[in-house]
Design a protein that fits this description.
With 479 residues, this protein is mainly alpha-helical. It has a domain at 272-479. It contains 19 helices and no strands. It has helices at 4-20, 26-49, 62-91, 97-119, 123-141, 147-182, 191-197, 203-221, 229-236, 239-265, 274-291, 298-319, 321-353, 364-367, 369-382, 389-404, 406-432, 446-461, 465-478. α1 runs antiparallel to α4, α8 (203-221) packs antiparallel against α10 and α13 (321-353) runs antiparallel to α18. The protein starts with a helix and ends with a helix.
Length: 479
């Protein structure tokens, strides 16, 4: 470990996971889960003020701190949401005390794995940490132990394993490209060394490596046609895990891909990674835009929306340049906050209605005004309507693309309009149609939902100058 804040972020999660595995009481377990997640968020904030020097195994720089702070914030708010959500699942008999111990322990272990992947200064350690985060979410997707949830978990496990295996092969190839320059062992696996000396690496090995890395980590990001695990995992797992998958885990895989892209960009003889990322990003956007019209399950609907937005983000980073990278970072942040807020709302809606079928849910603004109008606000934000932050990031992506590649900008706008029409079509029935389904009350925690929506609204109206400067600096680093 290279500094107290980084060690504290990681060790707090590990200690909480061990304690929660032995706590049978739901309320005590939920409280410990919330307190430990809040503590991790505080320590992540301390890294901003006390930036440790890079070491053999750990690294803290402007790029990964963006992801770590966002990861810890959404991890905290989701732990608050899950306290009320899981409590309802216990009362109706869908989960047992053993399930809850397992869930809370795996939640903290998942946060540990994601933060370790983000903070690792070693390409092998990052791969191991991302695999740990994947395995914990696989097990939580199957938490209900129904045939459908177990099938979704196995599908996630198999496809995720294929993706992570491809990523491992790509990682090995990067090591082989670095070894003649940096020597054997840990020196050739360090991010800081790889960035510094990438111009001397064998470009042929880097080219092959990036193809495997893009396919491997692209599977984890949920890019089409590698996305098949994602809709099932969202639909069949507990809703807090849907919020974490869309808001956090996809970002961690994206972070890994961006790190390797920086290595490739530093070698003038290697292929440009941008066109490959642009192609997969655009394919994902257009594919998801079409598939959104066929969704009949509310959680699957927003799962495909996640595929759409990850496509937009990967496209933006593929276009690169200071403005493209800035827009990609902003879009990633806004999507994480907005999509997790939508799943917070959807989770309680599904509980009160007792179904995920869109046809059986309607008139939410009349029957459950807070949940209904929160869903309306979340959907307005995610489809890019002003004054929410997603509008600003998508405007930057489209305008910067139009200045350089007008045909690509036309394709991006077409994909955005496709998704816009599909989601608003469903929202009309969900929020404003005739009331359908039960109209009873459900114990809900509105703090996570409203805090996310407020942040996205504030970001759409005003971004603090330090945040702009921070993102601009990271955008310049990304090339």
């Amino acid at each position: 470990m290279i500094g107290d804040p980084i060690a504290a972020v990681l060790l707090t999660s590990l200690a909480a996971a061990a304690v929660l595995a032995a706590v049978p009481n739901y309320r005590i377990g939920a409280a410990i889960n919330i307190v430990s997640s809040a503590t991790i968020l505080v320590f992540a904030g301390l890294i901003l003020w006390h930036r440790p020097a890079s070491g053999t195994y750990m690294l803290a720089d402007d790029l990964n701190i963006v992801f770590v702070v966002l990861n810890c914030f959404v991890g905290f708010t989701t732990s608050v949401f899950s306290a009320s959500y899981i409590g309802h699942e216990i009362r109706i008999g869908r989960l047992t005390k053993a399930n809850i111990r397992f869930y809370h322990s795996m939640y903290q272990l998942m946060l540990f794995g994601m933060n370790l992947a983000l903070l690792a200064n070693n390409i092998g350690l990052m791969w191991v940490a991302l695999e740990l985060a994947t395995l914990t979410t696989v097990m939580m997707v199957g938490l209900y132990r129904t045939a459908e949830s177990l099938e979704a978990a196995w599908k996630y496990f198999i496809l995720g394993s294929v993706g992570i295996a491809l990523a491992l092969f790509g990682t090995i190839l990067v090591y082989l490209a670095a070894r003649p320059v940096l020597g054997e062992g840990l020196a050739a696996m360090s991010w800081t060394n790889l960035f510094r000396m990438s111009h001397d690496f064998d470009p042929a090995l880097l080219n092959i490596a990036f193809v495997f890395l893009l396919l491997g980590y692209g599977t984890k990001i949920g890019l089409a046609p590698l996305h098949a695990w994602l809709p099932d995992a969202h639909a069949e797992g507990p809703t807090p895990i849907s919020a974490v998958l869309s808001g956090l885990l996809l970002n961690v895989a994206l972070y890994a891909l961006l790190r390797f892209k920086m290595i490739l960009s530093g070698n003038p003889l290697a292929i440009a990674p941008g066109p490959l990322m642009i192609a997969l990003g655009l394919l994902s956007l257009l594919f998801a835009g079409v598939m959104l019209y066929r969704r009949r399950d509310i959680k699957r609907l927003f799962a495909y929306s996640s595929i759409e937005h990850m496509g937009i983000i990967v496209f933006a980073f593929g276009m690169a340049g200071p403005l493209g990278n800035f827009a990609g970072l902003l879009q990633m942040t806004m999507h994480s906050l907005t999509k997790s807020a939508i799943f917070f709302s959807v989770g309680h809606i599904v509980q009160v209605k007792g179904t995920q079928r869109i046809a059986d849910i309607g008139g939410l603004t009349e029957s459950h005004p807070v949940l209904g109008w929160s869903l309306v606000a979340g959907v307005a934000a995610i489809v890019g309507l002003p004054p929410f932050g997603v509008f600003g990031s998508e405007f930057l992506i489209v305008s910067s693309t139009f200045a350089r590649q007008p045909l690509l900008a036309t394709a991006i706008v077409a994909g955005l309009l496709l998704a816009f029409g599909a989601i608003l079509r469903r929202l009309n029935d969900l929020a404003f149609g005739e009331v359908r389904g039960p109209t009873g009350l459900v114990e809900a925690s509105y703090f996570p939902l409203l805090s996310h929506l407020c942040l996205v609204l504030i970001a759409g109206l005003w971004l603090p100058p330090p945040v702009i400067a921070w993102f601009q600096h990271v955008a310049m680093q990304l090339g």
